[in-house]
Structure formats: structure tokens, C-alpha cells
Amino acid sequence: MIRDLSDLRVQESFRGSIEKMYDEHGLLNDDLFRLVGTGISSEVLVGCHIAVRAGTHWAEPYFTDWNQLDHYRVQDTIWYQRLLENTPRAVEALGTEKYPFCCMAFRGAADMAAAMLTAERLCDAVLDHPAKLKELLAHITDVTIDSALAHASLLPRHQGGQFNSYGIWTPGRTVTFTVDAATYFSPSCYEDIFLPFDQRLCAALDTPFVHTHASARQHFAGWLEISNLGLQCVIDQAYLPEGLNRPIGPQLAELLADFQIIRRRKSLMMYGYWDECTLQLALDQLPPGGSAILGMVEDPAAIRQKYIPQAA
User: Fold this and answer.
1) CATH of 8-234, one of 3.20.20.210, 3.50.50.60, 3.40.50.300, 2.160.10.10
2) Model confidence pLDDT, tens digit, residues 213-240
3) What gap in Å lies between CA 24 and CA 9, rounded to an integer?
4) Among the four 3, 148, 177, 193, which has the fewest Cβ within 10 Å?
5) What is the reported pTM?
């Protein structure tokens, strides 16, 4: 069921839950803003169903043929309509001055296509149907741009900017998009098939932000050329049942040279599992004023005491 905020009782319940969250936890989550989100799972905007089970959710594949989006109007879908109906109701319920609303996060073109096709069929399509795949990616990008701009237009602006989904204020209109599927492809393949659609999405916004993983570092150079794009990179670790973390893929020491190049030209957010050694390495080697460190630590209180200035 799609929650309908037109019911005044639902609006009151929504307002009460938000007020309670901020009363209990405050406006800030360390250095980032605690946000109010009104977005939805973006895969539904291209027809995917969302499965919810055991505290998590995922998009189920929804592919019929290569022409299924040729005459598709996202504006006619119930999800788009509810998104645009409920967002102003949420703003009305909370007001525009007290709580920061965040722009919606989207799957990027490659990730949306992977959701529709499955990752395996997406890789096959790169080889067997590249022209048809590009047409599909173009339609997906149209849907994303339309939805992102329509949603952002309903949110309050603060000092001429808005908040992205990571809790950062940005000038102008913003969007966060994911490119997890980029890890499957070589730089030349991604540059030919997918990167033009990342570029087109970024051209439609003022300060877009991309979520990627260290295993996609082969594409850093391509994203670096998108002048208004900020990067968030996940430095992956596996959390084992024994309570241990183990690295998956490149770790900070291997990524520093790439990160230093990125930081000379744009902002960078790093997400990972940190200890004092890796935190100090990042602080020593990467310039502040455009770097953000997020993630998990063994002892949050000790890290806060060491790195976050305490009020007098």
C-alpha cells in the first residue's frame, strides 16, 4: 500500500514521528544534517516491483522487450503521482524553516538497467544488443531527470540550495545516484555505453553526487571529467558472523593516489570501516575542506573524543 499523506491523521502522525526523532537525536548526526526524506525506491519509476522481506528490500526484474519504454510516461504511474502528491503534504505538515528535507536518491542508468534486466542479462546486452541497450538507457535517463527535477522543485530551498541524501547542503538543485553496476565493466566499455547517460543526468542538475565502490575505481577518470559531480566511494569490508571485518577489494592505502587526484578537482566522501590508523592516514594525506569520512568504527566514543572538538 502507498502511504497517502492526504489524511490529516496520517499527517499528524508523520509530524509527530519526525518531531520525536529530532527531539531525541538533534539536528546533526556528527557533522552531517539529519534529514527528512520523502523519496521512493527509484526502480519503481521504470516498472520494477519492490520485494520487502526480513527487514530489507530489493527491486525485482521487469523486462519484457527492448521497446517497453518507447512510449512510457512516468507521469502516468501511481508511484510518480504519489511522490509528487505526498511531498508537498509532508512539507506542509512540517513547515519549511525547521527541518531539512533531502532530495531523492536514484539508481543511475546502469543500476536501473541492471534492476530491469538482471546483472547477467545487462552484461549480455552490452555484447549482443549495444544499440538497443543505449536506447533503453536514454529512456531511463529521461525518467530519472524528469522525476528528480519534479521532486526537487517541491522541496524547500535554503540559501539557494538543497540537501542531498547524505546530509550535505549543496548549492542549487542536487541528486544522488548510484552506479554499483559499473564494477562489471571495463573503462572503455563504460565510457562507450553508460558514461554519456551519467553526463546527461549531471548536466540537468547543479550539484549531483555519485555513489560508487572502490572496485569501480577504473572509472574514476571518467567521472572526474564531469565538472559538477561529487563522488562518494565505499571502501568495502565484509562483516563476518564472528563479529570480524575483512577487506573486500581495494582499501584506503591502495586508493590514496586516486583519491588525491580526485581531491585536487572535486569533493570526495569516503565510507568504510575505520580504525585510528586509517583515519589518521586519510587526515594526513587528503586535504580537508572537501573531504568527508563516514562509516563504522570499533569504538565511536573514543573516536569522537579524539577527533571531534568538545564544547567548552
Assistant:
1) 3.20.20.210
2) 999 999 999 999 999 999 999 999 987 7
3) 22
4) 3
5) 0.93
